[in-house]
Amino acid sequence: MSATLLAVALSLVSAVAYAAAAVAQERLAARMADGGGQVLRLLGSGAWWSAVGLNAAAALLHVAALKFGPLTLVQPLGALTLVAAVPLGARLAGRRVTGLEWRGTGLTLIGLGALLLTASGPEPDDTLSLPEAVTVAALTMAVIGLLSRPGTRPGLRHATASGFASGVASALTQTVTVAATDRSGPVLSGHVVVVALLVAALAVGGLLLSQTAYRGGLGAPLAVVTLANPLAASAIGVALLGERLRGGAGGVLLAVAGALIASYGVVVLTRSSQQVTGEGPAQAPPLGPAPGAEPPASVLDAVEGGYLPSIPVQPDPAAAALRATPH
């Protein structure tokens, strides 16, 4: 098996594992949305550690893929995480995949196919220098700080920050992998150790940011993570690692077209998720009890339920006394 095919195969399995982890995180976030002490509650949750295990397994597969393929090949395949999460989420929710979801999945796959035709390349052999790695990590942390500053609502900003963190962590991971397997120097050199620590910090930050982003649902945040991740990693690969697209100007145009098609497919998947979950303008509560509903136990229950029980009209006491007086 060629290095390119091996990188694609590892990336596919990694995407499925990431999808399972994302679905588990979203379901956990929905259960913990209203409580406080989020970090402590997560650390005490078995479901959280299961999601962490899935993310760790997916990350190891991703690291292996980065050993055999360039960033411009491996990172776009991360969009398959969203494609895999759609049927998996539907299965766990006890429903069928909708036609709109199938359409978004197909568009995403077509776009990825176009990207893969231009991104296929030799095994990576270049690495970031230590100053480059530290500078990239520092800039990424500054951007993450701006996007997730205190007071911002959990959602797309946190998802964007998570995507950037994960994408940059992947780029630095490739540096660690290539440098550690290069027989010209020690396996655990100072360069490798420092960059590995930066990878760990960004990976943990990306995981926590995605957990926060999924409080508002899975569709839109996961789509943003899926797009921001390869954008950050591919930018580093082209700008600092000398990676290029095949086919010259035609290859660039094909890659751009594939990216646009894949992005539109992600948007369609996001819209389908909103339809399934019923996201949209809030509906006013009904003014009467639901059919078959039990009567409220108190006036407070009635007010909270959106209606008031029928109160008979009481006679005026003075008029009643006048009528009772004999004439």
Radius of gyration: 27 Å
Number of helices: 13
Terminal Cα span: 112 Å
The class by helix and strand makeup works out as mainly alpha
Helix content: over 70%
Proportion of strand residues: under 5%
Taken from the alpha-carbon principal axes, the silhouette is globular
Major beta sheet, specifics? none
The poorly predicted ranges are 279-322
Q: Could you please describe the fold and organization of this structure?
A:
By secondary structure, the protein is mainly α. 71% of the residues lie in helices and 0% in strands. The protein is built from 13 helices and no strands. Helix 1 (3-31) crosses helix 5 (80-93). It is globular. Residues 279-322 have low confidence and may be disordered.
Short description:
Helices cover 71% and strands 0% of the residues. The chain has helices at 3-31, 38-43, 46-68, 71-74, 80-93, 99-119, 130-147, 156-180, 190-213, 219-240, 248-277, 299-305, 317-324.
Properties at a glance:
71% helix; globular; 327 residues; mainly alpha
Give the arrangement of secondary structure elements.
Elements: H1 3-31, H2 38-43, H3 46-68, H4 71-74, H5 80-93, H6 99-119, H7 130-147, H8 156-180, H9 190-213, H10 219-240, H11 248-277, H12 299-305, H13 317-324
Helix pairs in contact: 1-3, 1-5, 3-8, 5-6, 6-11, 7-8, 7-9, 8-9, 8-10, 10-11
